[in-house]
Amino acid sequence: MRSFAASVTFCIALGVGAPAFAQEDAEGATDHPALARMAGFYLSSAEEQEFASHEFTVGDDVQAIEGRYWQLEYWLKDGARNPGALAIARNYTNALVSRKGRKIYEAIDTSGGTATASMPLGDGRELWVEIGVSNSGETYTLTIVEQAAMTQEIAITADWLAEQLSTTGSVALEGITFDTGKAAIEPDSKAVLDEIGALLARDGNLRLEIQGHTDNVGSPTDNLALSQKRAEAVKAYLVAAHFIEADRLTTAGFGDTRPVADNATEEGRARNRRVELHRK
User: Fold this and answer.
1) Residue 182: inside a domain
2) pLDDT tens for each residue of 64-93
């Protein structure tokens, strides 16, 4: 990441010291480690969240990207040269493209506008950047998301499952995993499955539909069949290991027809490979 920061610094012609009369950065505000600022600007505000979602403009649509989030607002210093709205946007998009990234969207005129670009981070993840320019280039905002899955800090317990099912009627469980292309449940799924079994054992009136979902790797027909088999494998485990009556559990497979994330990335495909429980 340091090498990219140096590249961006060169591309955007940064490194000019701030004049003594210039406004100062907001207290505690810092640039993104991979994206330096345009010369002559100060950082008026900075927000950072460990995990958040932002809808980036992609043509006539938007795409929600989740991960580590920054929103950084820059203002032109008094007396500094205004590079113009288009130059600001192009400097950032060109910098990302130079690092094997891509320009996704641009709608900029002399007054301002928005541009979107991304670059690879490795492991199928991307860094997405939205450049919003206003006041004819006197101010601009970078909204940045480094794709990442949320860290599950709340343990999946029978109590937590009961609360989710009572509140929303369903719960998605990415913690149940299978052998690649198969319906064999991997051993590390046992903890989650046993909590489902404990919930069903203590609530004899609870009935569930177990739904299987896949990513879009492979044919739709094969994915549909695989998702059904995986849902049935979960049911079979609960019946055999926890003596749950089979008629309390139904199964359904939806293959790759109901994605919850972008199948173009590994992180997105991992989220789409999931089991959901729906209260009946």
Assistant:
1) yes
2) 898 899 999 999 999 999 999 999 999 999
* 33 in Cβ contact with 7 (< 8 Å): no
User: 113 and 85 in contact (C-beta within 8 Å)?
Assistant: yes
Domain identity same for 127 and 203: no
Domain shared by 142 and 165, yes or no: no
Do 244 and 137 lie in one domain? The reply is no
* Residue pLDDT, tens place only, 196-249: 999 999 999 999 999 999 999 999 999 999 999 999 999 999 999 999 999 999
Contact in structure between 211 and 164 (CB atoms under 8 Å)? no
Distance CA 52, CA 23 (A): 30
Quick check: is 153 in a domain?
A: no
Cα dist. 14→7, 40, 42, 45, 126 in Å? Answer: 10, 9, 12, 19, 24
State whether 135 and 246 are in the same domain. no
Q: Helix count (H) and strand count (E) of the chain?
A: 6, 10
Its pTM stands at: 0.56
Q: What letters, b where the CB count within 10 A reaches 16 and e where it falls short, cover 47-61?
A: eeeeebebebbeeee
